[in-house]
Hints:
Elements: H1 15-27, H2 32-38, H3 42-57, H4 63-76, H5 80-84, H6 88-92, H7 97-103
Helix pairs in contact: 1-2, 1-3, 4-7
Amino acid sequence: MSHIAPLADAEITDPELRAVIAQCEALGVPDALLGRILARSPVHAVPMLRALLMSHAQGGVDHKLKEVVRIQLARFAGDSYFSALRSERARAAGLTEEAIEAGSGDYEDSPLFTEA
């Protein structure tokens, strides 16, 4: 697999892209590294990162649950990078590694999850 080097902060001159990367970094998912790699194509990076932020940080689904599902899907896909990331917002809301493991395993029988 080829390696794409992330741009240094000083190399990212688009103010909108810099703002979106800062939002990603503050949330922890996607992290700044992904944004700095995508920054090599700002025209694609901004809408992609905005879509990731919208799906990750907005909507009516509990953020902790979204984080568990995101990690479960990353593990299912064999993506060690995204399965290792942790949302700072979800952590602050009380998401634990125990809940992540339960959500990635036999969540239907786990007392950490309700039927809803």
